[in-house]
Amino acid sequence: MTSEDDAPRLTLPPGVRFAAVGAEFIRGIAAATGIEARLAERMALIAEEVLAASPATAVAVTLALRDRRHAVRLDVVFASAELDLAGLDQSRDRDVEDAAGVGLYLAARLADHLTTEPAGRGGLRLGFDLARAYPARAVPAPPDGLGMPVGTPVDPDDATLALLVDWAEAKGAGGPAFRTAARVLDQRAAGDLFARVALDARRRPVGGLFWQPFGRRLMALAGPALLLPEGPARKALVEALLDSALAGLVRGTVQGLVVLEAAPGMKRADFEVVGHLPDAQGGHPVLFRALEEDPGGITWVAPELRDWVAGMVRRLALGRDIEASPPPARASGAAMAAETDRAAGRVTLRPLLAAADAAEVAEANVALFRGQGFSQMRALLDLGRPEHAGFAQGLLRAGLAPAALIPDAAGDLLLLAATA
């Protein structure tokens, strides 16, 4: 596994002339670090397409490849953020003669996950992630007669964690995070997942709780996965798991916990309800628990959402200055990224690049994925970034509604949602 600082990197001028050089660099690093040929070739193609499509105004483009065990990540860093990268948006019409736009579109389609963030002074980082595939396997069912939990839940060794995930998967407990033990072990090794597991007197797992990074300074809780039958011991297990998780979180680095999809058994009284997500059963609450005092901040909101956000700010007693976002600097070129879960029929949209056409781009993305059969639509806007507010109008026109406000003083997260 390669850390972000240690990842091999190469800086090249933008443009077609250097695209093949960048692709060969990625192939070479992948071969040297043992990344599978299938993933290496996809990453090389992404690097080649992005370099070829990069305008001269990019000045310099830096490539860095990291093996994160459960995924491979390619960072493409531009020295300037003033770029036309609208081709990354899947909803835009394509002109076959626009080689740059088609190339960016192909790069976005090749990635499983795409993100953008500021880099350095005035730069822009594109992150392309490819998830590793894990072969299907038969999982053993938990044995009869698991005992009462003994002692406090622990940060488990790999064998214990894998056994918990196998048993939870066989029993259908805990939710999607508790599936495919090999993936869970790789996520934890990469620092993308943390766990607490309760054990019985024979050191067998009887329940567990996971948490993963979410936003800037938040963690998303997953679970609990409970292997004990209903009764007092099961309720006490939930309490012990949550207390252990809270003890394991580093204060000052994590501002709060969010629960988007609570598994059966989660003690909701320990959390604040910050919204509701629609689903086939009519909806479920989004839960939040603050771990430190909220110092207050600025929330940038589209006019159409001001009353709703102001109401939530009052209800949650947040110290927020609610401001109207300034107009974007660019007239066109907005783009969104989509994270899809085909098994759940769900797509989550996030802004990539802001421009004055953000509303139209947001509306087109919702139409695109509805046309592909996705029944659950979500969008996540960072209200700490004024440019994100421009996407809200299009999302509302497309039928999404504000569902939850997740507090983060550095930038509250607004979750919008709709079901077909």
TrEMBL record:
Protein name: ATP-binding protein
Gene source species: Falsiroseomonas oleicola
